[in-house]
Amino acid sequence: LRRGLYGLAIRLKEQVASEQNTAETYRQLGQLYLRLGQGKKAKRAFRNYLNASSKTRNRSTRRFKNRSTERIERLQTVALSYEEMGLSDKALRLITKSNLEHPRVGGFYTHRARLLLLKGKIIEGLSCIEAMIRQRAMGNLSLADLNSIYRILVTNSKVQEAIQTFKLGANLGSSVEFSLTLIKLALQAGDMTLASKESKSILSRSQLGTLRVRVGNAFYDAGYFRKAVPFYMEALEPGRGKTEVKNAVRMLLTIS
User: Fold this and answer.
1) CA-to-CA distance for 113 and 132, rounded, in angstroms?
2) Are the C-beta atoms of 251 and 235 separated by less than 8 Å?
C-alpha cells in the first residue's frame, strides 16, 4: 500500500515538474524516488534540484538569495535526504566532494566530520575539523552537527582529544558555536579552568543576554548548577535584551 501511495505521489510530482520546473518539486521527487529505491532517477531529480533557478525571496530582506549560498544549502539538503534513507555512504561522498569544491564553507566540514564520526572514524573526523580550522572556515557552522559531534565524541570517550582540537578553533575567536562546544567538552572533562576562561572570552564578544543564557545552560546541563547562576543573573541586567529574560528567570527558579 505504501509503495502504491509513493508511486502515485511520484506520478503527480512528475506531472508538476513537467509543467512548473521548480527546485522544490525536484527535491520532493528525488526523495520519493529514494523511498522506492530508484537511485538513478533520484540522482537525476536531485541534479535538477541543484540546477533549478530560485523564485523565492528572503522575507526579511526581500531579496533573492545569493546563488552560491543557495546551492550550498541545496547540496546539504540532498546529503541529508540520503542520510534519512540510510544511504550514509552516498551522503559522505557528496559532502566530501562539496567540501573539496568549497573549502571555505564551514558547514561542509562539520557535516563531513559528523558522518565520519558516526562511522567510528574518530581520527578522520577530528582531522576534518582541524582542516576547517586551518582554512579558517569557521562561518556558517551547523549547530546541529556540532551538537552531534559533541555527543559522539563523549560517547566514544574522546573528550581530551576533542578538547585539543577545539581549542585550536576557539583561539581564532570567530565562532561562538565552536567556543560553546569547547565549553561543553571542558565541563565534561571537569576542566573548570578552561570552561571559565572560554566562557569569559565569548561573553566579551557580545552584550546580549541570549549568549549568557546559553553559557549558563552549558554549565547547568553538565551538572554545575550553582556555577550557572551568575550567567543567568547577567542575562537579567539592563541592556542585555529582553529575548531571554523568561528563560533566565525559569532556570534560576529551577535551580532554587
Assistant:
1) 10
2) no
* pLDDT tens track for 217-253: 999 999 999 999 999 999 998 888 777 788 899 999 9
Cell 566532494 sits on residue: 97
Mean pLDDT of the chain: 87
Q: In terms of DSSP H, where are the helices of the chain? A: 2-20, 23-35, 39-51, 67-84, 88-101, 106-118, 122-134, 143-155, 159-170, 176-188, 192-203, 209-221, 225-235, 245-255
Whole-angstrom Cα distance, residue 162 to residue 226? 26
Q: What count of residues does the chain have?
A: 256
Cell numbers standing for residue 57:
525571496
Written as one string, the DSSP assignment of 48-75 is: HHHHSPP--EETTTTEEPPHHHHHHHHH
